[in-house]
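ok so I'm stuck.
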Amino acid sequence: MHFIAISINHRTADVALREQVAFRDDTLRLAHEDLYETKSILENVILSTCNRTEVYAVVDQIHTGRYYIQRFLARSFGFDVDDIKVMSEVKVGDDAVEHLLRVISGLDSIVLGETQILGQMRDAFFLAQETGTTGTIFNHLFKQAITFAKRAHSETDIADNAVSVSYAAVELAKKVFGKLKSKHAVIIGAGEMSELSLLNLLGSGISNITIVNRTLAKAEILANKHNVSFDSLDALPSLLEQTDIVISSTSSQDYIITNEMINQISDRRKVDSLVMIDIAVPRDIEPGIDAITNIFNYDVDDLKGLVDANLRERQLAVETIAQQIPAEIDSHNEWVNMLGVVPVIRALRDKAMDIQSETMDSIDRKLPHLSERERKVISKHTKSIINQMLKDPIKQAKELSSDKKSTEKLELFQNIFDIEAEDPREKAKLEKESKAQEISARRIFSFE
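replied:
not stuck anymore, here's the structure
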């Protein structure tokens, strides 16, 4: 069995291409099932976000597994297989495990160290598990990866410092107000940066948000998308009388908020402090406004200094997390190697206990007058002899798990003791056949 990760991400494809190879949420379950029923695929998890589409799979052969995954992606999105090959990264074995750990802990994200990917990966795994496309390997590996990412975030500062301008804007507001939940925010503009600011405000607990834009229809579309309020740009002066936070990001060549506007409404303001964050170039907010008491005005240069400092902090955390990844890979490999040893040890124990049971039956026939206590003493001592005899062979079997020729040596081990252990690879194939039948039956039932 082999582990493959195939990734289409921000390094391999631009946003226009990534938009074309993203699974809709309502198609992901079917996609998991389709891939699982494909030849060579023994287990699979599909991750699809705005920045990446990835397929993780346990396959019986690397070359055929890789081909069938790429063919599946091509068929799913109407591309040629060669197109998918060009826009994707392929990782195998330890490299695939490392890729999974880097992605889930935020080391491979556009925004370094972001935590959203952990939840997205966890949801992808849970969906695959619920659908029935995971098995022994992935049930262990993804739980290990989720635990690793949680520990990485809790033990380092990788997610504590803002490294995007829109996120930094919200963090600045937090520095002034503390908790933002009860505050009212106004976002000026309806473009990409405005939407990112909106998402960060919503993530901070603010629900009272108003979007204003010169083109009212665009403000309405963005507001309806995220279930917030909207208004025309003409309403901005009255909004400024009652708002706490303003984030502005337009393409205007003139100031949207002027000193004159603030002077006119400052006496009528119903709240104490006003934080205005200008992330537009050229600027939307006239310089000098922050000279007014309780008015805080930040521009993009102020934010850039914060972002650069925070990015350096995150990079230090990345180095700490990256140093922990090799140990996680080793731990996973040790566990996988033990999968081949455990059935051998179990078969050896079963044979030994069968011999002990047959011996006790023989003793019962030849010494029928033994008391129950005497029989228990004899049974206990015969089991003790067996356990002592098995101690060294079992130790040797466990050590074989890390041997380069473990398969051949385990076969010799089984021949010496005349035992036959279940092949985990055959077990995985049988498990897939059984699950695939369940999936097919489920589909037939749903159509009926």
